[in-house]
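F.,

This is the one I mentioned.
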């Protein structure tokens, strides 16, 4: 079965909450997958492009230890904002498994470090202090000398995975240092099969995809990726001569999706850019190289669902530079300039000067 690329983009545009019609509750699936944070208030900007308020709080202020969204080291060990009611769900969906790299030894290591973290993080404390306290409690085989930190501690990947299992949430930075807080006391959403539900949620948000793309987004998590084979309602679809799979119940929604419309500036790690087949979203290889850089990647200018260029914000100069891949209509340029105000607001700055390249 064939799906037009325009339909695929329209579906993702709507399900990612970029159509201007989103409500707080309609973003549940997106928040289950998480909104990745980063430099220059990345998560806050992603939220502000979708809703003005979340859980009764202004979007720019919605992430914090007390919710309505909390930061967890979840997908790929990176900080992601999730609903405060999803902490148990995300922990279970991404729990280490013997099928992961490192096998049972890795699972045991994460469990031991998680236990130490639960006993150490009783209130807000710096990650550095927590790391030192954990290193004193766990087996010597789990710690090693870190030349960069000039200290002996648990490797960061294991520490972050354990942080999720300990349900430690990230607090606001203090003097540019990460802070940790204990699991919030809040009623949790119950899910009977968290791994399977996460995969189904991924497809509900992103539409046609593949097991390989899921693995790339998760950065491993083989036990969760393996649940793909348990989806018994998948149908094969073709988008722009590329083959994907999709739950049959979503086929009509993809085919009937309204055409994407709007102009937004999203940060480098926005879900719209992360949870996707990059070559399908941006067919031009040179443009892909400009959008997805390993270090210091730019934000993306999205016009009617397409990646129409990229932007960089220089807070010290109160300037936002936009580079376009195609000519924009005057109305589209005007919308982009108005949208730049959200970039500044997310960074607690004044309206920036927009410079077009």
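My design for it:
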């Amino acid at each position: 079965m064939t799906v037009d690329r325009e339909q695929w983009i329209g579906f993702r545009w709507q399900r990612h909450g970029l159509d201007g019609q989103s409500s707080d509750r309609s973003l549940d699936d997106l928040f289950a997958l998480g909104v990745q944070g980063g430099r220059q208030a990345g998560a806050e900007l992603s939220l502000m492009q979708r809703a003005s308020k979340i859980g009764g709080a202004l979007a720019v202020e919605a992430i914090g230890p007390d919710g309505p969204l909390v930061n967890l080291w979840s997908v790929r060990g990176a900080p992601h904002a999730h609903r405060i009611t999803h902490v148990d769900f995300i922990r279970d969906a991404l729990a280490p498994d013997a099928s992961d790299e490192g096998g049972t030894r890795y699972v045991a290591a994460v469990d031991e470090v998680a236990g130490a973290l639960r006993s150490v993080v009783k209130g807000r404390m710096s990650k550095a202090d927590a790391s030192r306290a954990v290193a004193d409690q766990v087996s010597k085989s789990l710690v090693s000398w870190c030349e960069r930190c000039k200290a002996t501690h648990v490797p960061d990947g294991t520490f972050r995975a354990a942080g999720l299992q300990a349900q430690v949430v990230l607090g606001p930075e203090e003097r540019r240092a990460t802070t940790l807080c204990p699991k919030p006391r809040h009623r949790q959403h119950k899910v009977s099969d968290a791994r399977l539900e996460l995969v189904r949620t991924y497809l509900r948000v992103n539409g046609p995809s593949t097991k390989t793309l899921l693995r790339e987004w998760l950065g491993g998590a083989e036990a969760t990726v393996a649940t793909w084979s348990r989806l018994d309602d998948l149908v094969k679809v073709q988008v722009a001569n590329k083959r994907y799979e999709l739950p049959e119940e979503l086929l009509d929604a993809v085919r009937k999706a309204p055409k994407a419309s709007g102009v937004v500036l999203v940060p480098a790690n926005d879900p719209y850019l992360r949870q996707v087949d990059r070559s399908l979203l941006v067919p031009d290889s040179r443009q892909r190289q400009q959008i997805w850089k390993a270090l210091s990647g730019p934000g993306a200018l999205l016009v009617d669902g397409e990646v129409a260029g990229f932007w960089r914000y220089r807070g010290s100069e109160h300037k936002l530079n936009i580079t376009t891949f195609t000519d924009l209509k005057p109305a589209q340029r005007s919308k982009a300039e108005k949208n730049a105000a959200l970039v500044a607001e997310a960074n607690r700055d004044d309206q920036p000067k927009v410079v077009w390249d």
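The chain is about 35% helix and 20% strand.

Talk soon.
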